[in-house]
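User: I want to check something. If I give you two sequences, will you return the structure for each one separately, not as a complex?

Assistant: Yes, each is folded on its own. Here is the first sequence with its structure:
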Amino acid sequence: CCSYGAHASDNKDRNQVAKLAKKLGKDEWQYRNVGMKKGVWKKVGKDEHRTRLHKGACVFLNRPDFAAGPGCALHLHALNTGKHFSETKPTVCWQLPLRAVEREEEDESTTTVLTEFGRDGWGEGGEEFGWWCTEAKEAFTGAEPVYKSMEAELRAMLGDDVYEQVAHYLDTRVASG
């Protein structure tokens, strides 16, 4: 995903990331000068924005030759400031490999279904991505269940009350074997 840039989910997402970018230091963000000069977002459709690309990848992606090491500058900032990365990264970045899909019901209500984010979620463009986070065998070898290891993300996506219900249900299933 870092090769293609992150698509903003809405104006709030764009504004939060742009505001945070100004706080990143040169010790956290390899391409800070580029991001600050050109802006961190690029318009890619009528109402669509994606993080700017620089040297073939997201402007926030620090490369292996960077003193702080490779990886996302926004993620590094979260680690450096004791925040969870869901507070610093674009929504699509911190949610992966989870995906919330809204479904219109017959009674005109909307149900949100939480699922994995696979190739089909990106349309034709998804065929170009390396889906290590959901397709590699290593993706399913964690020591604890996803509902525990991704608790912060799930709470942000579901809300605390729904998360507590899901966790209680799954804790009961785990305990029963």
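And separately, the second sequence with its own structure:
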Amino acid sequence: MRVAKIGIIGTGHISEIYCENLTNVHANTEIVAVADVIREVAEKKAAKWNIPYVLTVEQLLAREDIDIVVNLTPPKNHYEVIKAALLAGKHVFTEKPLATTAEEADELIALAEEKDLMLGAAPETNYGAGVSTAKDLLAKGAIGKVLYADARFRWPG
């Protein structure tokens, strides 16, 4: 079995579940390096998950042993990071959204196709278990007729 070598860019909150799954769930993946604009955060993540290298983004992208870049940066940085990774010859998986404009997303898709690289993005939360269950329960009338709803997004980024 070939093991895919992973480089993670962005070691904030969401990186924890990625490290857990890439380390303990998927036997065919190995996290080789992490990079973050706050080096101390990347160093803590690397120490916790026994990741060998803490690098700059440029150093991570230059490594020939990294097959896939996992982009966990804030959405405003997705286009720039993904484009650099594709130009470096890396497959990319990114948190949502792929880019902040349709034009940028189209450009990234075209670049991945041109370079024969895989480009994937996390599914929108609307398709996750919690939202899907809530939609199903509402459709079945489990709580009666909904007269009013209020939702707030309280996470920056």
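Because they were folded independently, the notes below concern the second chain alone. The beta strands are 4-9, 29-35, 53-55, 68-71, 91-94, 119-121. DSSP finds six helices and six strands in the chain.
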